[in-house]
Write a structure and sequence with these properties.
Helices cover about 25% and strands about 30% of the residues. By secondary structure, the chain is an alpha+beta fold. The protein has a 4-stranded antiparallel beta sheet with strand order 1-2-3-4, with no helix packed on it. Helix 1 packs across helix 2.
């Protein structure tokens, strides 16, 4: 749901001719875009937009962390725009 909220916020910013990305913030989004993502997704998870489209909108790669899991999303097929998720969990190895 978070990725869908990011896409929706991006489309809103684009339609209003407002900036979407801000690489100086923790999330990689402008404050208004991040507020939209949180409101649309209902999520309090940490996320970072790592890469947007060439026009500065959309999401090409993102990182999402919640409840000990980290999910990395990336466009795996540039031609079709198909993306995939890789999910990691942290665990203690020693001790």
């Amino acid at each position: 749901m978070l990725r869908v909220a990011v896409i929706a916020a991006s489309k809103t910013c684009c339609a209003l001719n407002e900036p979407f990305r801000d690489p100086t913030t923790e999330s990689g989004l402008t404050a208004s875009a991040e507020e939209d993502v949180r409101a649309l997704s209902g999520s309090d998870a940490e996320f970072v937009i790592l890469r947007s489209g060439e026009d500065g909108y959309g999401v090409r790669a993102m990182l999402y962390t919640k409840n000990g899991y980290t999910a990395v999303y990336g466009i795996s097929d540039e031609d079709s725009g198909e993306g995939s998720w890789t999910v990691y969990t942290a665990g203690r190895i020693i001790g």
